[in-house]
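Lab notebook, page 48
Experiment: co-folding of the full assembly
Goal: obtain a model of how the components sit together before planning crosslinking
Operator: M.T.
Materials (sequences as entered):
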Amino acid sequence: MAEDKSPNKPQSASNLAEIRATRIEKVAQIKELGLNPYAYKWESSHHAAELQEKYADLANGEEVEDQVAIAGRIIARRVFGKLAFFELQDETGKIQLYLEKKKINNTMLDLVGAFNHLKKLSDTGDILGVKGTIKRTEKGELSVYVSEFQILTKSLLPLPDKWHGLTDTEKRYRQRYVDLIVNPQVRQTFRIRAKITAAIRRYLETRDFLEIETPVLQSEAGGADARPFITYHNTLEMDLYLRIATELYLKRLIVGGFEKVFELGRIFRNEGVSTRHNPEFTMIEVYQAYADYHDMMALTENLISNVAQEVLGTTKVNYQGDEIDLTPPWRRVTMHEVVQDATGVDFAQFSDFDSAKTAAKDAGIEVPSDCQTIGKLLNEAFEQKVETTLIQPTFVLDYPVEISPLAKPHRDKPGLVERFEVFMVGRETANSFSELTDPLDQRQRLEAQAAKKAAGDLEAQDIDEDFLAALEYGMPPTGGLGIGIDRLVMLLTDSASIRDVIAFPLLKNQSTAIKSFDYDAEQQILRIVFGNGSIYKYLDVPQSIYKELKETSSVGQYFNSQIRDKFGFDREV
RNA sequence: GGGAACGUAGCUCAAUUGGCAGAGCAAGCGACUCUUAAUCGUUUGGUUGUGGGUUCGAGUCCCACCGUUCCCA
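Observation: model returned without errors.
Model output:
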């Protein structure tokens, strides 16, 4: 076809590649005008919210001669012949720009036809800086009456629908920056999150707690029952684990003589993903010498209610339709009591496991095969019958020793430890003990854990000899507390999923295509090169597999179903 | 790990029993000095997640895979 494709006439464009090409062409045109589509700096005098507040009383049609400068993203354009209205959004809010051809062209004498250039070369999504005065339009919209503008950053990609926004959850999480641009409540969530962590630190600092940073890379992953991530240090030639808790290092600091320490930081657990779990999440652990778990209860309820008051201005918060009252004191109940209330079974009365098991089964509790002590049974009953019913903040006290290897034995109740967990909206939100300080007891408990680990329990703890050595030097009586920050933020921001309070939650990679592969028949090594550049050598792969891979109509699919997860591999670095 | 649902244009969504893939917004072009989901005219834009299968014919039915969401463990 001999169609006339004049290079000066932009082709009509509406798919992504064409929109992008059109905008890249605009970048070139901006440069031809001697302007920089990617500016270095801009000085604003105000933010949008400040202007909205300052001129709230300006009457319709009224103007004031105050000079202002403001910058932000163009999120809407309403363009007339010699007049245009843009909506500008900055971090604080929105304000309209009143753009008049006459005024702009009379001011920007260096740029001939400045108004028309703005009309032609700007798009929604661009970052724009403007200077001008203040005017409330006749229709009542507070506006900056623009005399000068500068395109600070040219955007190449279109924003989502101005009315419906971005709703696709996958895209919202994978491209959080777009989500943040178009969904103001998402920005608000992360603003509140920052205020919460700041308020927690402020609360603790005014009470003389020190925040001390402990290692993320650890040679033993201890302090919790969880599977760790494993990594490798090349020059030291050693395996390292990402921390699953900060507990054992913070306790070393107590041994060292600090009396009030905490750390608010990222924890990594190699576990599944759900609305309540992200493999990396944020926890605060607090340790106070000479305190017990009763002191930690007071600290917990005061800290959290104080934070809510400071950040939200109230201790009564709405969560997914429930009103949660965080005003202290919170309900305190022992695990035995609360389980008995829910199931009618008093687990304290049993002396042998089998009769307890029978009673539990009669009460409708599923007993997993690895549950072989009364204490674990009690915990099962609690998790199955009680946990989700605890909506208002509740301290659940006095846990079985079997599931609490780092907690001090209860001073009055044999078989139990001085431990509490806080539940709200049916979720565990905090965990605390009178910390175990007897080094010999601690060694026995960790040895029992290590035995479980040796028997295949991937979540059991290892023995951290150096931690035990620290305890042998002597740790004062100490109360410890851990609070899940993400879950607290969920509560205070009324977020249903943990992914709504983590800016960049972990998502599965969209699978990368296989670029090429070859086979070493002698060593039975299948070497696969992926599109992202990584190379994997799959070991002991029979020749038949290689043949089928070569002949299949879909390499990626064959790989997914027949090779990945089925053969061991080495990564080529 | 098990179950259910979903995946269509840049965004938000349609598409009857298996029968021509459509709309709004966004985008291109034109008009317009009070719009605010601007309006009016006009023009574009699709490998229906991927790979197979059934069929004269597949967005729709079947199988596998990828991803997401929710529930359960």
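Interpretation: The first strand of chain A starts at residue 63 and ends at 79.
Next step: discuss with group before ordering constructs.
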